[in-house]
Specification:
Cytochrome C3; elongated; 3 strands; single chain
C-alpha cells in the first residue's frame, strides 16, 4: 500500500509540475505592436474596436512586396487605404488571404485587433513617424 500512495503522490506532483511549467510559457500580456508593424486605426476606435496591428515582417518573410502592394492594392503608406471590415469580408485587402482557407478568417477579431486603443495609424516606432510626430517635451522643459 505505501508503494501505491507514493506512486499516486509522484503522479500528482508531476501533473502539477507540468501545469506550472506549461503556464510559464503562456504569454498573458496584452498584444503589443513590434518595430515595423503597421497599426491601422482609421476606423477601429470609431467602431469600438482596438486598432488592428499588421505584422509587416511576418508577412514579408513569406511573400514578396508585389503580392500585397501590387496584386492586392495596398498603398506604400500607413493609412493610405480606406480599409474596413466590409471590404475585408468581401475578399479585398486582408480578406484576400484571411478567408479561413489561406489564413485564419475574420471571425477571430482579437488576432488582428490587438493594438492599444487610441494609437494612431502609423508604422510602429519608425523613424519617419518619430520625425513627423515628435514627442511633446515634459511639462516645464523645452
Amino acid at each position: 500500500m505505501p508503494s501505491l500512495i507514493r506512486r499516486t503522490l509522484i503522479g500528482r506532483m508531476l501533473f502539477v509540475g507540468t501545469l506550472v511549467l506549461a503556464t510559464a510559457f503562456v504569454d498573458t500580456r496584452p498584444a503589443m505592436a513590434e518595430y515595423g508593424d503597421v497599426i491601422m486605426n482609421n476606423n477601429s476606435d470609431a467602431a469600438g474596436m482596438r486598432p488592428a496591428v499588421f505584422p509587416h515582417w511576418f508577412h514579408r518573410v513569406r511573400y514578396s512586396c508585389k503580392v500585397c502592394h501590387a496584386d492586392l492594392g495596398f498603398k506604400f503608406k500607413a493609412g493610405g487605404n480606406n480599409i474596413d471590415m466590409l471590404k475585408i469580408m468581401d475578399g479585398q485587402y486582408c480578406g484576400a488571404c484571411h478567408n479561413g482557407t489561406i489564413a485564419w478568417s475574420v471571425e477571430n477579431c482579437n488576432l488582428c485587433h490587438s493594438g492599444k486603443p487610441g494609437t494612431p495609424t502609423q508604422v510602429h516606432e519608425s523613424k519617419s513617424h518619430e520625425l513627423l510626430n515628435p514627442a511633446k517635451p515634459p511639462v516645464g522643459k523645452k
